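Quick one - inputs below.
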Amino acid sequence: MTELRQRVAHEPDAPPEDKESESEAKLDGETASDSESRAEPAPPPASVDDTPEVLNRALSNLSSRWKNWWVRGILTLAMIAFFFIIIYLGPMVLMIIVMCVQIKCFHEIITIGYNVYHSYDLPWFRTLSWYFLLCVNYFFYGETVTDYFFTLVQREEPLRILSKYHRFISFTLYLTGFCMFVLSLVKKHYRLQFYMFGWTHVTLLIVVTQSHLVIHNLFEGMIWFIVPISCVICNDIMAYMFGFFFGRTPLIKLSPKKTWEGFIGGFFATVVFGLLLSYVMSGYRCFVCPVEYNNDTNSFTVDCEPSDLFRLQEYNIPGVIQSVIGWKTVRMYPFQIHSVALSTFASLIGPFGGFFASGFKRAFKIKDFANTIPGHGGIMDRFDCQYLMATFVNVYIASFIRGPNPSKLIQQFLTLRPDQQLHIFNTLRSHLVDKGMLTAATEDE
Amino acid sequence: MLFYIDDRYGDLDSRTDSDIPEIPPSLDRTPEILKKALSGLSSRWKNWWIRGILTLTMISLFFLIIYMGSFMLMLLVLSIQVKCFHEIITIGYRVYRSYDLPWFRTLSWYFLLCVNYFFYGETVADYFATFVQREEQLQFLIRYHRFISFALYLAGFCMFVLSLVKKHYRLQFYMFAWTHVTLLITVTQSHLVIQNLFEGMIWFLVPISSVICNDITAYLFGFFFGRTPLIKLSPKKTWEGFIGGFFSTVVFGFTAAYVLSKYQYFVCPVEYRSDVNSFVTECEPSELFRLQSYSLPPFLKAVLRRETVSLYPFQIHSIALSTFASLIGPFGGFFASGFKRAFKIKDFANTIPGHGGIMDRFDCQYLMATFVHVYITSFIRGPNPSRVLQQLLVLQPEQQLNIYKTLKTHLTEKGILQPTLKV
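Output:
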């Protein structure tokens, strides 16, 4: 959104307050060459315009401002359509897409680091960055595979060994990278190398952990993946619309184009959207059921008895609303209540992820993370507000929705010693008897 | 000519190391009494004596705290963690001259508090399960622990975003990243150390002593026999010191493991007893800590003229730990040396006269704690039984019933549970 207005500001009738963004825009091309001598008088070349030719031709007769608007709009619709297609294709494709997005975001941020520090020539460093990405992904995917594909893993002997010593193997791989880094330190470039090392690790922390939490959420049920992401997208679009039509009071100095009207309007619109969307989706098993790996068919299945969250229940409307709507009770899915919490987070805290990314771009004098998507910037530009959402959903699910994974517990139980197993079994038994779930009669079944 | 808004920060990034001015050294903190006692010696021997005396002091302090028990050790680990964090953050402030940044010191300490709260909360939930079950408020805190920690962290994150000031964006992002990497290094390590400690004090003592021993013996071997330089990063280290240190550390670890394995105090997992409201280390020592006979391979048989030898199985593990301490531990030291050279500092701080800061002493320990933890979880023990139980009790009743039936079948098959016995 900010980028669009900045491009608009280049026109002759640009208000004077955009001077800073103008000078920033001029400086963009300088970023890659800031330490070299200032002998080059020529202005830096503009970034390559990625807009496909077909769009360029179709929109060639419109003015520059509307052309940008149309490009953005068309790309937005294209991305949303793409999103629907991959949802249709199923969990496996979604996982692959998440992984590709993660790799692209990592690449974008690391490239910015290289540009900032002019460290393309540093020995080994690109190899090391990708190696660390591989290690951390191996660690996380290994943990996920061990949890969710438990039976498959137990069957194959090599997989069993890999999973048993998984932490040790991952640690060894990481250590190798660490030692290679230490051995690659070159005398005059210590500081640069440490900066890139730190940069890589912080990027891994941000990008890789998020993507794995997204996949965990996905396994919980596709609705836990779709509703949060759609809420963030909706909030983005709604806040922009409300700001466009009603915006007056600026929200934060960091993003001068954002307004309080957009913020609050976006909040209410997103909550309503979340309620509607979850109502629609809760009806379908394919969205609501946890993703499971079926050993017999060797594929993912989403078939189950929907849990309590996804069964219609009657709720009494509080007196205040009763008089307004004229109904006594309403039938809702309990999940819709949770969706209010998710939408609230998406509208109130999600934007902080966006402010963080704006601050980052201003700090390093870049306009966009990259130029992958015409009109929008890089992949990271689209996903900056999603940043905190995935973690929140994961923590929310772990705290309020489900307890620990039962099959994982059984797996852990089986690795204990017999006396420990017996002790736990007896404690569980007395607990169940106390609760009345187990009586002496049912004991013998 | 075009300028940056934050020109000085741009220079910070892009200049080569030689252009960066050196940070002036901090004050000398050697106590007066030592100075007077050693005033007669030349400068070189004086430094040697100061280092020696401080080394012995630190080792004695270490023994004293071991004697005082696990709780004191935990407090010590926590203080060291806080001091290391403080040292590294102070270096960041000096490098970036960012003392005046609004909010930043508060935010760094706040993040430290959050991450510690998260980790200690997880530990407390695991190890103090019985204590926790009694108190209602604690139950609530434990159940929603992750959510509360995340909310606390988020509050810090939002405060950071709100505190971004126009001309200092880059600096603020640097300090944010610096803080997070420091937290990643120091706080996770210290909690892995405490997890190792709970496994049994021997898992805490043998690794740390192996690293210290490697430090000292590599130095001595290098001093007397050193000739071939090891790595450009630390020109004083030599191959002779490295290899000599390796062998001595393995022997030391082997011997220390033998001595410590006899005592229940060191060998038993630390448990919290609610009745006495303190930590106890009493148990039936596991198989690792019971003498077993091993038949010697033929070449050793000829040398030692014995058929078998009684060893604790733990001693075999101690060889793995000592090997790691001697071969990979030094990389932590090289990493810290590189870091000091990169930022043109001689020592992390001046806390310990003759040695530098706390971080200088603990740089080789950096990787050791993680290795020991990974080693224990992979090769020694399975998951923590009380944690499994705690998670079982949190499940839905129907799930508990299902698990109960599965377990019952499993245990009956294995013969652990007699089908006719009503326990």
